[in-house]
Amino acid sequence: MAGSAASTAVASDASDSVRSATQLEEEGEIAADYIEELLDITDLDGDIDIDARDGRAYLSVNSSLDSNLRLLSKPETVTALQELTRIAVQAKTGVFSRLILDVGGSRQAREAELSQLVERATDRIQGGAQSAALPPMSSYERKLVHDLVAARGFVSQSEGEGHDRHTVITHA
Questions:
Q1: Is residue 40 within a helix (H) or strand (E), and if so which, with residue range?
Q2: pTM of the prediction?
Q3: Which domains does the chain have, with CATH numbers?
Q4: pLDDT by residue (tens digit) across 19-68?
C-alpha cells in the first residue's frame, strides 16, 4: 500500500508539471490572441512569439518593418499592456497569470539598464558605501536585479511596500 501511495504521488507530480506546461501554453495562446486583437485595432504590424520557461509564459512582439510598434515599446506602456494582458488571461482561465510581455525588444533594453544600474551601485559599495538603494521597480525587475547582484558577489533584498518596493544592495 505504501508503494502504491508513493507511485501515485510521483504520478501526481508528473501530472502537475504537465498541467503547468499546458497551462502556460494556454496562457500564451490567450495572451497572443489578445495582443493580436490589440494590434489589429491599432493598425500596427507585429509578429508574436510565445515561449514558456521558469514557470511563466513569455510573449515577444516584434516587427521586421520600420513600424509604429516602437510606440508601444516604452517601459510604462509595456507594463500597462502586460497588466491588461494578464487580466485578459485571468478572465479566461480564472487563474492569475505571471506572463511577461516584451514589445520591440524593450525587455532586453531594460535588462541592460538594470545591469548598468547594478554595476554603478556595486561600484559605490566597493568604493566604501555601506549599501546602495535602487529606485522602486516591479517584482520582475527586482528579481532580475537580485540575480545580477548575486552574480557580482553581493547581497540584495527588497524593502518597502507597494509602489515604493525597491532593492537594497550590500556586501556579501
A1: helix 2-41
A2: 0.73
A3: 2-104 (3.30.300.20), 109-171 (3.30.1370.50)
A4: 488 889 999 999 999 999 999 998 888 899 999 988 899 999 998 766 67
